[in-house]
Design goal:
Shape: globular
CATH architecture: Sandwich
Strand content: over 45%
CATH class: Mainly Beta
Protein name: Lectin
Number of strands: 19
Number of domains: 1
Radius of gyration: 16 Å
Order of helices and strands: EEEEEEHEEEEEEEEEEEEE
Distance between the termini: 28 Å
Keywords: Signal
CATH topology: Jelly Rolls
Structural class: mainly beta
Signal peptide: 1-19
Largest sheet: 8 strands, antiparallel
Length: 227
């Protein structure tokens, strides 16, 4: 399986290769100093993949902080999708994935049609060290991965539309539904960290418990043309 470097630009915590370009995003963070991201859920619909793909396009919801790696399950498109995961022209290669010390790590890559909802779950285990990623399609777990970053103190959550090398961008609207972000402690000001790129739309942030759990019913990311 190829190792692809996907580096976080959300939350202002990492430097990006000059070869990369980034589409508009929805991003939250950092949390307050006494709080941390410990879990998230979202249902992601990537939309139809580009025709005549060029290496390489990555779409993902990510969570990280200034000192951790990037937890980033999502949908990939390389020039040769068939060789990469057996995908056809209307499918993405979907996997649990992580970028950090040691480079890129991924769970199994599975072809998924662009209009199929993909359930993505990140959870910090009870040992307060291990992150479990679970990717589910139509009720079936298709990819999992573990990493070891501990609580994401002053961390954030956001979307990524990442183009590398000769990638030309996306042709479809991406949709995130029923997103939930859970913090270790209530942070009523977390909503004030929200940043959105041009054309990004969302239904607004709500919290049922004073700022420990944050939800957004829908986020849409517009098509992106790479420079």
């Amino acid at each position: 399986m190829p190792s692809i470097s996907r580096i976080l630009v959300l939350f202002g915590v990492a430097v990006v290769s000059l070869a990369d370009s980034w589409g508009p995003a929805f991003s939250l963070g950092p949390t307050s100093p006494n709080s941390a991201v410990i879990e998230s859920f979202t249902t992601f619909i990537p939309g139809k993949p580009p025709t005549n793909p060029q290496d390489a396009l990555f779409l993902w919801p990510g969570t990280s902080n200034a000192t951790s790696g990037l937890i980033q399950s999502g949908a990939d498109q390389l020039r040769d999708q068939k060789a990469y995961c057996g995908a056809n022209a209307t499918s993405w290669c979907v996997s649990a994935s992580y970028f950090g010390v040691g480079g890129q790590k991924s769970g199994p890559l599975v072809p998924v049609d662009g209009n199929t909802p993909i359930d993505i779950h990140y959870k910090l285990a009870s040992d307060q060290r291990t992150w479990d990623q679970t990717v589910t399609v139509n009720g079936k777990v298709i990819s999992t991965l573990q990493s070891f970053d501990g609580p994401l103190i002053q961390g954030g959550w956001g979307t990524g539309t990442e183009c590398q090398s000769n990638c030309r961008g996306t042709i479809s609207t991406q949709t995130y539904k029923n997103t939930k972000i859970i913090l270790s402690r209530a942070d009523p000001d977390f909503k004030n960290t929200l940043g959105v790129g041009g054309g990004v739309q969302h239904t607004g942030l709500t919290t049922p418990d004073g700022g420990k759990t944050w939800t957004v019913t829908q986020i849409t990311i517009p098509p992106y043309t790479a420079p």
